[in-house]
Amino acid sequence: MLGFMCSCWGQCNSNHSRGMVKLERDLRPSHFLLKIQSYSLLVDSHMESYESDIFEAGGYKWRLVFYPSRKNHGSEIGTNYISLYLRIAEFDTFPPDWEVNVCFKLYVQDQKRDKYFTIQDAAREVKRFHALKTESGFPNFLSVDTLKDPSKGYLVNDCCVFGAEVFVVQCTGKSESFSMIKPRFRTKTFTWKIENFAASKEYLESKTFEVGGRSWKLAVYPKGNSVAKDCVSLYLRLDDSNNLPTKEKVYATFKLRIRDQKHSKHFERTAYQWFHGKSKCWGFSEFISLKNVNNASKRYIMNDTLVVEVEFMAVSATTVSSQVKQLEQKLGIAEIVEMERDLRPSHFLLKIQSYSSLLDNHMQSYESNIFEAGGYKWRLVFYPSGKNQISGSGTNHISLYLRIAEFDTFPPDWEVNVCFKLYVQDQTRDKYFTIQDAAREVKRFHALKTESGFPNFLSLYTFKDPSKGYLVNDCCVFGAEVFVVQCTQMSESFSLVKTPYGTFTWKIENFAASKEYLESETFEVGRRSWKLSVYPKGDSRTKDCVSLYLRLDDSNNLPTKEKVYATFKLRIRDQKHSKHFERTASHWFHAESKGWGFGEFISLKDVNDGSKGYIVNDTLVVQVEIMAVSATTSTTLTSQVKQDHN
């Protein structure tokens, strides 16, 4: 099971969470892991932020950005926090008005218990990335005190681990409208007179008639069908079942009747049934015994005519539509978290247009048509009186479940990990109320567990409360968003390595006659190759100064996009009094930024001042002391949580 912890910052009430929400889980973040192996060195180096290598999710490229001291720490807001952000990358080729809607979560690992602590913005969970806003995240991700608290396990041996899951919400939304039509239509009863009943064939079929926008027939076996003897078998048949869209069903509540033609003491039985392509008819093989039919006192047969009738109490009407939208997704948290939003659920909408008729017709559940999300097929299942009502332990709640469909061709050990949310619409304010299980946020579907959801989705009292807007004119609207957690996870380990032998000294002889540009021999520090470069009379941007730079010599050999961070001191030695002149720098070195230093490191006037001892015997001694160098490794883990069933 996924363990959980829940807490909340900001304002909360019983219906909606604001601020930020947190929870823990066992499952690793599915898209990216970043390991910082030397947090204290990173802080000491005054590195404002660490930007990870690129990882891919949802068809886009991203970076995780870690601020060891709170981003925007110059503001009046508390600064004693670490910050964590998601940044979109390589968007230069996007069209001018590009926009990406994203639902993401950022994590820190509890290394002692091997759990992942997630934090999410409850107020505006779906983030919109565009040209003017290329990153989003949490300035107050964790307080430094919490990070350093040994009991939390977030910082162990100066190492901390962060993660990201990124879901780009761009999908085909499907909606379905289901209603139980109480027959306002003119004809809700069809009557069929069967003449010459005694000599009738083994099987009789009525003419076609229409009720509730559907075509029907009655079918009679005058002497019983293959499973019944000495009885009349009577059935209702959906005549246009072959014309139904794939997987569509029609629910009907009806009475089958044999009329008493004299006393009106008719014989009837009530039925409830889903009609579809594989179940075209429903009725009773032993509807009534032939003995009773032929009993003259009951007047079922007069003049060798039997009158058969069907009366419809309700017929469902289902319409399905698809629409392409870029929408948002929401992940709530609390033991069961409830939040509202304006945007429609992005994968499926189910409209129940006659809730009371579902109850009146004793429909235990309504199973929607199939919709697709994440490469799988699903159904939304609504229990108007609660799922537990079926087992006799009624809960006074409605239940809502997600069910995986068409898994017969999956391999025997199939498994699908899913993050989903179910919604109900507040129709008076046009908002969508979502509920989610925080304790087990990622659900595991497999052969023994093909559905998951909420038995106590809403109490009937709340559901029927007019002020809530969930049930309006006997109509309610539910929705679903389904994200299959299937990805290639990339992990990155970043560390700053102290370099106790990280000093290189370069003696430049004949300094007065030196060239415009000088370069030292190559030296190694932190498993990297470096050089010093000097412009004795200043580089192209300066005059009357010595320009001094540290250069990463193997930058051309770095893997694509890899960077090396270094904290170092550049120094000109005082060869008489050891009062050296030095300046400190920190920099990310990479293929496009091979060197870093100071164009105006020291003035030539000071260098040539004999009292300062910088030049002795026309020799200038230049030095670099590298205090820390980063080491970054990246690995890719393919997580095949979705079985290949094609």
Automatic annotation (TrEMBL):
It comes from the Eukaryota. The lineage of its organism: Eukaryota, Viridiplantae, Streptophyta, Embryophyta, Tracheophyta. Residues 29-166, 187-312, 345-482, 501-626 form the MATH domain. Transmembrane segments: none annotated. This is MATH domain and coiled-coil domain-containing protein. It holds the Pfam family MATH_2. InterPro entries: MATH/TRAF_dom (IPR002083), TRAF-like (IPR008974). It comes from Senna tora.
